Amino acid sequence: MRVLLAYNKFAGGFRPKLLNALQMQLAKRGHLVFSVGTRDKEFSEELSRCDHVCVLGGDGTLRDSINLARSFNVSPSFSILPLGTINLVAREREYEKNAEIMATRIASLADPVSHYTAKMNDDAFVACLSIGPDSYSVARVTQKSKDKWGRLAYLFAFVQQLMDWKRMELSVKIDGETVRAEAIYVLKSKYFAGPWSLCRQADITLPQFSVILLPKARRRDFIRLIASAIISPRFQSAKWTQLTCNDLHISALTGTPVQADGDIAGTLPMRVQIAPEPLRFTS
């Protein structure tokens, strides 16, 4: 099997020793292995002809690799050695930072697991999308701060956001009905921002996503949302709208940032829908 190790040397936990160890373990098992940085000019060519992509990075690196694969109309299988800042999909698949275990799992592709991603306009997202106070907060996070502080960079950005709170009115069209809200969370993964969960029913293996709409997104509403994820779902408000769907359209003021998988991935307006074909991940 032709295996591409797609690494992001800017990922928060990137370790060249792990890259070398995984390459050695896969070669020992008889695979043809190539390692290329996702920002290298050779990346596109190698991705277009590989059978399997092991992403050494986080959800953002995985998302970029999926987008590129779809642009070439190729469908390799995927796995992740979790070296990013948050690593939500790796949590779902229970991938570890262990080269030998990962090589064994890549060899087990006889029984792959389907993962339905979502699309925001024409680009994929793999775990979560949000628009509201937290997307403005993520917009404050720089690559330099992520490199220096890791997950804490998001906390520092949120503290800044608390002092300069922004609210907006979103128009969300679902199944022909328009709903007004000040914040929206579109969830493929049951995990959000780490080991916590906004919706335990979210399922990456199903062709749908879970949606949470907050009619008001004041500071106290957002703190309540975080408490519902970190402490208990009992902090959820009956005023929030929660549903599942596979297609919606979101609009607001032009330029409103959209957070996807821990990065700013676009601005409104935006159509969000389930990708028609699932990805294959190592079991």
CATH architecture of the largest domain: Sandwich
How would a crystallographer describe the biggest sheet?
Answer: 6 strands, antiparallel
The best one-word shape is globular
Number of domain units? 2
**Proportion of helical residues:** 25-40%
Structural class by secondary-structure content: alpha+beta
Task: Describe the protein in words.
This protein has 283 residues and is α+β, with helices and mostly antiparallel strands. It has two domains: 2-110, Rossmann fold (3-Layer(aba) Sandwich); 123-281, Sandwich (Tumour Suppressor Smad4). 29% of the residues lie in helices and 30% in strands. It has helices spanning 16-28, 43-48, 59-71, 88-93, 99-106, 133-138, 143-149, 152-163, 219-230, and strands at residues 2-7, 32-37, 52-57, 77-82, 113-115, 118-120, 123-125, 128-131, 170-174, 177-181, 183-187, 209-214, 241-245, 247-251, 257-260, 263-267, 270-274, 279-281. α3 (59-71) links the parallel β3 (52-57) and β4 (77-82). α1 (16-28) packs across α5 (99-106). The longest helix is centred in the N-terminal third of the chain and has 13 residues, at 16-28. The mean pLDDT is 92.
